Amino acid sequence: MVHTSQHQQAQEQEQYAPDSPMTDFLDVRLAKITRKQYISRLKMFFESLGLQGSLDRQSREFLVQAKKNREWAQNGLKYFIRAKKKRAEEGEISESTIRNFYKPVRLFCSIHDVDLSWKKITNTIPTGRKFANDRAPTHEEVQRVIEYPDRRIKPLVLTMCSSGIRLGAWEYLRWKHIEPIRRMDGDGKKGKIVAAKIIVYAGENEQYFSFITPEAFEALQEWMEYRRISGEDINVESWLMRTVWDTTNPRNSTVKSPKKMSREAIIQLVKRALKSEGLRTNLDMKITRRYEFKANHGFRKFFQTNAEPKMKSLDVMTLMGQDTGLAASYNKPTVGMLLEEYLKAVDNLTIDKGRLSRTAVEKVSQNQQALASQMESKDKELQELRDKMAKMEESQLKITELLEVMKIAKSSDGKVGKDRTMLDEKRRVTIGYVDDNNQSIEMKVPLDGFEIDEAGVDVVTSHPPKRGAQK
Length: 471
Description:
- By secondary structure, the protein is an alpha+beta fold.
- It folds into four domains: about 5-120, no CATH class; about 140-350, Intergrase catalytic core (hpI Integrase, Chain A, Orthogonal Bundle), CATH 1.10.443.10; about 355-395; about 405-470, no CATH class.
- The protein contains 16 helices and eleven strands.
- The protein has helices spanning about 5-15, 20-25, 30-50, 55-70, 70-90, 100-110, 120, 140-145, 155-165, 215-230, 265-275, 295-305, 315-320, 325-330, 335-350, 355-405; strands at about 180, 195-200, 210, 410, 415, 420-425, 430-435, 440-445, 450, 460, 465-470.
- The N and C termini lie far apart (about 130 Å).
């Protein structure tokens, strides 16, 4: 049976009259993605009952018949669930998704007071696994995906892997929602980009923020620059992901009239990339019903798997926009606090290991340059210290020699005077001797004014010393 597309359903949603059963149904507070899914699955249910026409017409007819014949509605839902169970048995869908087809029908009936035997119906729905039996893709597998020859795949996948955003977030993301974060260098200049902040579901009740790696930011920047060079007017309101255009015709107007890339288009792009790179083949339903890792949701799981070894689990959940329960009322980390945690995981979240090597080499080179500069400065300081010590040693040697020579001071007539030699704070030597009148005399002679003769026993002054006070 052919179903209307989600795009058509979104158009129908705007045309519902105030008295339409669908208007009441859509008054319920639901996330946009959930609302679209509910509308799609409700449409499937009505069509399984043989109801024709638009969703508005189908909903009205369903209510009329359900209120007249409750058993008709009950059996209709029972058969609808049974058909989904058969698809699950054949491996087309997982058992855990069957309940998702039941939820919108029950919500619609509850809003319009259609009371069915819900307990009987829910007892027929298999519970399925509460968690998916899959894994996150490896770095090597992600690397293969981004090598697919479509310029959009690299920024798209790297952004999802490094931030953990859901697929539906792309319907809100514009260029203004990406804010690069730089770290200052040691010399106070602007440093390199260490991460970028990403605003998720901007303007919605579910709005939150996360981060992407420098690698992902560079990929986005290259993608936006390519579009600008191609002729698109890139500004803060530009969508991050857009539809393709005819690159062989520069005058083609489609490049200047960008359209947002839809969720469904992103799903198909990733599927093509996975298949092209040999990461998706036809499954043998007798052996397994699911791939080792999911397509788009696998990138979200990649983020959680690689971030948690380096970050606190609660912070990882916060950056993924997950409900942290009661902890959300008490745990209020700032942007700076979460950034410091995120930076610990950047290496784990980077796909291009060669880029990490280049970054490491650059860092080592910078460290070596800084170390060489520090060594040069230390060598200079050490040389200055050595020069000072040499001068001090020279002065000390000179003082020692003078003191040794001047242990005995002689008067002009050969009388021996009392040793009064000493050096004051002005670097003057005080000489004491006894004059002709048998008086003690002290003279202060600058240290530089002394010379030692070859015999090493006499002191010769280069200029006559001033006579000191007599004692």
